[in-house]
Write a structure and sequence with these properties.
InterPro entries: Papain-like_cys_pep_sf, Peptidase_C12_UCH, Peptidase_C12_UCH_sf, UCH_AS. Belongs to the peptidase C12 family. This is Ubiquitin carboxyl-terminal hydrolase. GO terms for molecular function: cysteine-type deubiquitinase activity. The structure is a single chain. By secondary structure, the chain is an alpha+beta fold. It folds into two domains: about 45 residues; about 220 residues, Peptidase C12, ubiquitin carboxyl-terminal hydrolase (Ubiquitin C-terminal Hydrolase UCH-l3, 3-Layer(aba) Sandwich). About 40% of the residues lie in helices and about 15% in strands. It contains 13 helices and ten strands. The strands form three sheets. A six-stranded antiparallel sheet has the order 2-10-3-5-6-7, with helices on both faces. A two-stranded antiparallel sheet has the order 1-4. The longest helix is centred in the N-terminal third of the chain and has 20 residues. It is globular, with a radius of gyration of 28 Å.
Amino acid sequence: MLDLGMTLLPFVPVSGKNREKYIYEECGPWPNERIPNERLWMLSDRENIHRMRFISKFLSFEMSAEPEISVAAANAGELNQPKPRWMPLEGNPEVLNKYLQNLGVKNENYEFVEIIGFDEELLAFVPQPVAAVLLIFPITEQHEKNRRKEFDEAASTPPDYSQAIYFLRQSIGNACGSIAVIHSIANNLEKFHLHAHKPLAQFLETTKLMTPEQRAEHLKHALDMATANDTIAEEGESRVIDRDEHVNLHFVCFVNVNNELYELDGRHPHPIKHPVKIRTGDALDLLRSTKDVILKLVEDAGGDIRFSMLALTKMAD
C-alpha cells in the first residue's frame, strides 16, 4: 500500500508569505502528480481522506489569504489594491453650478464664475464676497518635487484643526474636482442651505466628527455622491473622459477660515496654511490673497498654460 505520509502534511498553513514554498517544498506535489490516474482507485480510504484534507485546506487557504500590503501602502493605511475611480469633472462654471444642484446645494445667491487673471481690471469683474477659489493646474515634475518636500514636512508636523477646518483626503482617482467643491461648501456652511435628503448634506452630517482619512474612506462607499459626480461629468463642453483614463490636471481649493488663508488639497496630509494676507479693512481678501501662491504654481509648470481659476462668489445684484 502506498504511504502518503511523506507526501502530505496533515494541514496547510493559512497565512504567511512563503505559501508556495511551503506547499511544494514541504508538502511535495499534489497526490495526483505522484499517482498515475489508472491507480487512483487503489488508494485506501485513509489515503483518500488524507488527499481530500490537503485539497480542502489548500482551497481554504487560497480563499482566506489576504493580499500582501506594500510598505508604502501600509504607511498610507491602504491595502495594495486598485484605487476606485470617478469620472473627472470639467473646470467649467456652468458644469460646477449644475453639480452644486445635484449635490443638493440651494445656490440662489452664490455661483461659480471664471477668474480671467490677476490684473486689477480683471479682478474687478469678479463679484464680491468670494467664498472660495478653485484652481485647476497641470501636475508637473517640478510641482511634484515641491509637493513631496511639503508632504515630508507635514508628516512630521501635527495638523492644526483648531480653526475647525473641514478637510477631506483624496483616495478616489479623478475625484479632485468633487473634493474641491466639497471643501468650498463645507467651510462656508453659514452661506448655504443644503437639502437635508440630498447627497452633500447627508455626507457632511455623517462625516463631521470623522478624521480626514475616515471621510475619504466613507466617500468611497457613498454611491449617491459618486452618482452626482458621474452624472454631471458627462455634461461638459469638452470630450467626456473615461474614469480609467489618466488625467494630470488637479483641483485645489482656497478658503478663508477665521481670516486665515488655507489651501485644501486632498493629496496633502493636512490643510496648508499660507502667510499671504491681503485685507480689505479687517477682512481677508481671499481673491487677491491667492495670487502669490497661484503664480508660484504657474512658475513651477515650466511654461505649461493649462491653468484655470474659478471663484465661488455671491451673485451680482
